[in-house]
Amino acid sequence: MARRDSAPQPELPPHPELGAGIITKSLGPSAILVGLMLLGLGGTLMYGSLLGSGWGTPGNAARSDWLLRIGGVVMGLLMGGMGVVLMVRFGDRFNFYELGVTRTRRGNTRAMLRYDQAEDLTIKEARSYHNGAYVGTGINMTWLRGGRRVFRYNGMYKEKMEKGGLKVWLKQKFVEGPREMDAVRDLAAFVLTPRWSDALARGETLELGKGHSANSQGLTPASGPMKGQLVSYASVEDMLIKDFKLHVMSGGQEIIKCPTDGKNFWPRFYAVQECWLAAVEASDEDAPERAPEM
């Protein structure tokens, strides 16, 4: 479940090790409410399971479904535990800096990560709606090293909507432009990009998602009109991210469309984007100059 961040956000001072402050996010009072709800649901589930099991009653007549009852108790414990954790962490603050991120509680640093200490990065974003109305965009950022999670952030932010947009699901229009967490995403991904740029330079193939791949020469769509064909970077007209999906255009048509939530998508995308921009620049330099009009 994505966590709603409190507002407004105070200015974040620089960190002695992590550099300039970018943004600070907190769980806010909503964490207590959600925690209490989970704790209550967990307790109700446990009580119902224990009462229905017949434990503590003469004959234990209902033990025939004991596996189901034990499962209910376990689920109740898990839900209750999650509720307690949320209530304990409601005061946690996630402070994002130029070089890394910290998690603090009551002014004490509980966890810290430099972006260059991670090997893998996964970023997932999704818009949430209630009764057809947009309520916020959830974001999950997970850093891994050696296959193990070393830091994770779950939060929510609000995107700007175009004026006059209909408040109806799938018809709401959002303002295209930098979003609240874009700067953090870029900084964290750029640190890992050289690894994938080097892989492309060595002739390796990178998967972008949904089977679509890229190498140093171009892109190979896994579906669509150019399925299985290598499309050179010079022939790519545009690469853009919209609604958390990558859209690649060539020959006036969309040849690739894939989600951005895959493991290491963002650092790989920036490495591929570098190849594309270099090809476009080289193509512009090779193009013959137009004679001035008389």
Descriptive tags:
four-stranded antiparallel beta sheet, 294 residues, 14 strands, disordered N terminus, 31% strand, alpha+beta
Spatial strand arrangement across the major sheet = 1-2-3-4
Examine the secondary-structure arrangement and name the CATH architecture of the largest domain.
Roll
Computed over alpha carbons, the radius of gyration is: 25 Å
Number of strands: 14
Listing every helix as H and every strand as E from the N terminus to the C terminus, the arrangement reads EHHEEEEEEHEEEEEEEH
Give the CATH class of the largest domain: Mainly Beta
Strand content: 25-35%
Task: Please characterize this protein's 3D structure.
The protein is α+β, with helices and mostly antiparallel strands and 294 residues long. It folds into 3 domains: 30-88; 92-180, no CATH class; 194-286, PH-domain like. Helix content is 30%, strand content 31%. The protein is built from 4 helices and 14 strands. It has a 4-stranded antiparallel beta sheet, with helices on one face. Helix 1 (30-53) runs antiparallel to helix 2 (66-88). The longest helix is centred in the N-terminal third of the chain and has 24 residues, at 30-53. It is globular, with a radius of gyration of 25 Å. The N and C termini lie far apart (65 Å). Residues 1-9 and 54-63 have low confidence and may be disordered.
